[in-house]
Design goal:
Strand order of the largest sheet: 1-8-3-6-9
Largest sheet: 5 strands, antiparallel
Order of helices and strands: EHEEEEEEEHHHEHHHHHHHHH
Number of helices: 13
Helix content: 40-55%
Shape: globular
Low-confidence stretches: 4-11, 174-182
Distance between the termini: 21 Å
Number of strands: 9
Radius of gyration: 20 Å
Length: 295
């Protein structure tokens, strides 16, 4: 595999009436045509929710493998490489939401409270204590609205989705929604978008700050408040995530990956990777391959 496949929706042919900002399907209806398996791929601009009602599946997200059993929800942000192998008979929903549409549903304070859900892959158990079938009912409502377009469809779908994401954040007990109306969340999101674009050009923190109209100190404070990290650590984390994806899902050598990520010296790339992960690139690739064979 020369590169990680990029898809809008994996293997789906959308009806002409389908909205372009969201898709939903029942797992038991869409998976059999894929032999119950979705090969590793990524979506550049879609956030996905895998709502598992019953049955089990093996999930590969980035460099992690795990088995999951109903009832739970896997939340997968845009750009995260993921693949699934389901046991036949699994039931539930797969929901795909355009990232810009999703973010438009929330104000700055809400985005701050849900930041981890939007940025990091999460597995959220749906226990009897935290969910009495409400997530599944929301799935049914979204499915009905998706297939029967009526006036105000985007508003209704947006309302249902907003409820789902807030409920998932509550179930995950990751954070409480905090008031933050000072625009720092929007600044952080702009910084993250700049990192996506310029990390492989190895911009300095000062360049990111200048592009945002901030001092380096102000940028670091925005990042610390939103993500608990300094700006440089976030840039390094982005490069490491990309390196891991390329090591796991392509046949590129460590040297080629280093060049692709903007490192002019392959030796420096290897030292950078080992300093942050504790393993050389080849060791990391071998460890992940061995863990996959054991599953």
């Amino acid at each position: 595999m020369a590169d990680i496949p990029h898809y809008f929706l994996y293997g789906e042919e959308l009806p002409e009436t389908a909205p372009d900002y969201m898709h939903i399907a029942r797992l038991e209806q869409s998976l059999p045509k894929h032999n119950w398996e979705i090969h590793p791929h990524r979506h550049d601009n879609l956030h996905q929710l895998m709502i598992l009602e019953s049955g089990s599946m093996h999930a590969h997200i980035c460099d992690r493998n795990a088995e999951y059993h109903g009832r739970c929800v896997l939340s997968i942000p845009a750009k995260e490489v993921h693949g699934f192998a389901h046991q036949p008979g699994v039931t539930g929903f797969i929901v795909s939401v355009s990232h810009p549409f999703m973010m438009s549903l929330f104000n700055d304070a809400e985005r701050q409270g849900l930041a981890q859900l939007f940025r990091e892959p999460m597995v959220i158990p749906l226990t009897v204590d935290t969910d009495e079938g409400e997530i599944t009912r929301m799935g049914d409502r979204l499915l009905e609205e998706f297939h029967t377009p009526k006036i105000g469809q985007a508003s209704i779908i947006g309302a249902y989705l907003k409820i789902v994401f807030v409920m998932l954040a509550r179930h995950g007990q990751r954070s409480d929604i905090q008031e933050n109306t000072d625009g720092k969340t929007a600044l952080f999101e702009r910084f993250v978008r700049l990192v996506d674009t310029h990390a492989t050009e190895h911009w300095q923190v000062s360049q990111y700050a200048e592009a945002l109209g901030l001092s380096q100190g102000q940028l670091n404070r925005v990042c610390q408040r939103a993500a608990g990290q300094q700006a440089l650590a976030i840039v390094h984390e982005h490069l490491l995530d990309e390196a891991k994806r390329l090591l796991v899902f392509t046949q590129l050598s460590a040297k080629e990956i280093g060049y692709q990520l903007g490192f002019k010296d392959p030796g420096y790339f290897s030292r950078f990777f080992q300093r942050h992960t504790g393993q050389a690139p080849k060791q990391f690739k071998t460890r992940v391959a061995e863990s996959q064979r054991q599953i």
